Amino acid sequence: MAEPEGSGLQVLLHTLQSSSDRASILSILQVLGDLLSVGTDRRIRYMISKGGSEALLQTLVDTARTASPDYGVLLPLFRLLAKVGLRDKKFGQKALELEALDVTLILARKNLSHSLNLLHCLWALRVFASSVTTGAMLGVNGAMELLFQVIPPYTRRRARIIRAATEVLAALLKSKSNSRRAVNRGYVASLLRLHQDWHSHDTANSYLPIRRALLLCLKHIATLQSGREAFLAAQGMEILFSSTQSSLEDRSLEPVTSVALQVLRQCYPRSPLPLVTASSAYAFPAPGHHPSEPPRLLAEEDFEDDGDEEEDRDSDSEDAKEEALEPTPGDDVHPDANHLHIPTAASLKQRRLDEDQSSRGQEREAVPETSLLSKAKMGRSPVHPVSKNGPGTNPHPHAQPNGLGVDPSGKEVLDLETLLQEDAWDMDMTSCARTGASPPSSTPPGGTADGIHELLQTHPQHVPFHDPFVYLAKARGTKSVADFKTPAFPDLWGHCPSHSPEPLLERKRGIQRVKVLEDIRRLLQPSDVIDKVVFSVDEPWQGTAPNCLWFSSKFESGNLRKAIQVREFEYDLLINTDINCTQYQQWFNFKVRGMRAATPYRFNIINYEKPNSQFNYGMQPTMYSVKEALRGRPTWKRTGYEICYYKNHYRESMAVTGGTSRKCYYTLTFSVTFPHHGDVCYLAYHYPYTYTALMTHLDLLEKSVDPKTVYFRQEALCRTLGGNACPLVTVTAMPASASPAHLEQFRQRPYQVVTARVHPGESNASWVMKGALEFLVSSDPGARLLRENFIFKVIPMLNPDGVVNGNHRCSLRGEDLNRQWLAPSAQLQPTIYHAKGLLYYLHSAGRSPVVFCDFHGHSQKKNVFVYGCSIKETLWQAESAVGAPAVSEDVSYRTLPRILDQLAPAFTMSSCSFLVEKSRASTARVVVWREMGVARSYTMESSYCGCNQGPYQGLQFGTRELEEMGAMFCLGLLLLELKSASCSRQLLTRAASLLDAQDGALDQQLRRCSSGGSGTVELDDEPPCLEEIDYGPDSSSDREGSCSELDRQIREWASLQDQDEGEEEEEEQEQEQEEEEEGLELGRRDSP
Ligand SMILES: [Zn+2]
């Protein structure tokens, strides 16, 4: 800024402070006002830097302290102060030091009935209160009492003043000490009464800012535990719940409804999760794993509020003084909130005894198991479906008939209704004993295979690269911690992808709000709440439960731990943590039966951990209906509606955290209308792909190839901790002949190494891998070229144990195996040790792979993309790499993603990243790059959800699209080779002729690739969600403190002064006129 202006300003400010001449003060204020009303904030900040705030505050104090304060000076001064103060971070402190707080409060008190003066004082107080410390000081000096005098029940008069007063109050209550004072003085009840009054009378919604500010007051008080207690005691939940319910549909009420909902969620009493322990339901005695201590029980006795949401942003000097007033933090669990399923101390003791007596992993679903076992003993004798009050009982005998039992031709087939109702599938599978404990002779006569054979004959199905008989044989070799005996039907029967991908689910407006209010209704209107545990791995279930769904997850990749029937058609579900872990809940997979058709069921998975999810952005879970499968549609489908994901009222128990800040939990809620009555359906996070399914797939792949041309070999890389074989697949072409030249070419082919599923919950990675393997052994000319030129080493499942046992992230030792590549141990991380060993061997032989890629799934982003390694973007290699533009690097690592961007519909270059972060130093990608010198070392991430670009834009992934991605990845490797300098002339010629002959489009792709990279711009992960997903004091939607808003109010007021008053203001204005005169009188009388 130019110097003359600067010095001119300083002269003005100096004169303002020193002058006692009214006229000159007024003219300086006029000049300053004009100066600041144009131009930008920069001008105001400049003035602040030149002591503008102090000058104005000093003038205020001097003017206010005269015998009869001159409001002609004070009012423009207040307006300037508001403007400057909002932009001066230290304004509160300056006002405090210059004693401007006191004089403003005194002026406000004097002018209680003088609207114009009071309004200006309130604006100044609003600015002072934006500093928490100053706000606390105002509280000590009685500002809140003053404001309560100004804020009346509903009235159409003095709206501007009431608004300003409620906003000052809301700002003051950001201070913890003010909130405490408010609680102690019973202001919570007063605020609730005010809320009720304004809410019920303001039917035209003319005073939304006042109503919103009143709710913000409650919101700030509710950050204190004592505030929440006062709120509950004053029936706050009931009051806000009913006022919110009545205004849910009204969009114009949004600013009010959203805050009311935040208060309700904040005050909903916290509870621990309804689980016996925070650790996994299953334990595995893994080598080198020291279970820290016996699993601690979650009991409500140790559940205390930790106050982690009580911290003020700013230091609050009042805190210490007032600490004594604060009641000692007690149990925050509201008596009404005690869920029936939260175990009592006595029941816990009992359970511990029970657990001691029965070994883990032997728990059964008592009722079905008993009946199944007895049936198994009897052989396949017919069952009696209706009379029994067991799992098969149709709870709704008048519901529609399902039509099963008759095949499309109308012919009577197996009594499928009976079969399904009695869960004979489970019986069949139960009799299919695994190796190990049961001797072969235990298989009952006329065993499972016959039954399946029969079913397959009556319901012929063909799923490529799948065979139920091979599956059953493979299943015998699969070892699980919980000793699963029953294959999941979809896994056994197979899955055919649907014909077209599903569109992203459009989010229903306000859905989260509706669901949250339904949750709150449990507390307030519990008449329809059942709250009964209907399934629990921890608590083997003894009783029968009519009129409810039957749950099960004791099958490969299943991981449901507990189901609680909340209302007739609503269930809370808890998924198991990873084994030997207390976290990583994300994957889910379970079975339900006993459903009605055409009835919406609501499911809530209540122990999620991540703060956001693609379920908020169009993703649906998947479902497989057994009846549909038997009707010839064996398909995992995207399903569910009214889906959203939000923070709930469960908190990690103090016993688990040992007093440190506690973890929040999130709810995934979705509704499902099942296609058939009395069906058996499986619901999963994503399309399941189990270890047994992989082993079946590999066998069938091997059988499918012509051994004369395709070299396909499966072997065990090693055994896992759980005793499963980790498969290693080699694919290449057989040598063209036995000639020495051909044999030499065979031996010298470069390697490509591809791995997947180190993270067991990332089943999408397996579908990509399935597509890649099927392509590699196919007769596609591109595949043939790839085989002739490379040796593929594929480890399709780096973490079989995790997959088998339904883990999301870890091995049986509770470790993320993709953080173990730096120094894996043969005993502790055998698959990583041997995978790294293989790569080391290739490296030491001078034959490191051309490309290394590890397939993963991504839960927060859409599309498919890779992470690669750039030396320039290596963030932790201090001097040499970081910020050294001089370092020239070979950017060949970018070529493959560029090719894929052009080639694969699901792939996008714009999400790729080549950053190497220290936190990733022990991942496969980084270790293979650094230690093995593989420049093209990647992690390929596929969304669980779908695409927001390219040909699949707006669609969720089906397995077909994921498999296609795998094939395209392989093709990408071919194109990469064709583009590279090392590519032989001969290969190019052959490729050109093949590709021309086969597919012109591909050739075109090739040309497009070579014409350069993608110009797409980096996109954000997701646009902001329509609704606020999180809540609490740290929520971002809280814009109450914005400068511009108060500015706007003042400007609006000023412009109204300039014009003649609008008509509707007339009456009010007259009224205020009278008051003003009266106020002036009062003011004069009260002056010192
Ligand atoms: Zn992963």
List the keywords.
6-stranded mixed beta sheet, alpha+beta, binds zinc ion, 7-stranded mixed beta sheet, 42 helices, 1088 residues
3D structure, described in words:
This protein is α+β, with helices and mostly antiparallel strands. It has 42 helices and 18 strands. Strand 12 and strand 13 form a beta hairpin. The chain is elongated. Bound molecules: zinc ion.
Shape: elongated
Beta-strand fraction estimate? 5-15%
Task: Find the structural class using helix and strand composition.
Answer: alpha+beta
The main sheet comes to:
7 strands, mixed
As laid out across the biggest beta sheet, the strand order is 12-13-15-14-16-18-17
Q: Gyration radius, to the nearest Å?
A: 35 Å
Give the termini separation: 44 Å
Strand tally? 18
Mean pLDDT metric: 79
Bound molecules: zinc ion
Low-pLDDT runs of 5+ residues are: 291-423, 426-446, 997-1021, 1030-1039, 1060-1088
Number of helices: 42
The helix fraction, in percent, is 40-55%
Summarize the structure.
The protein is α+β, with helices and mostly antiparallel strands and 1088 residues long. The protein is built from 42 helices and 18 strands.
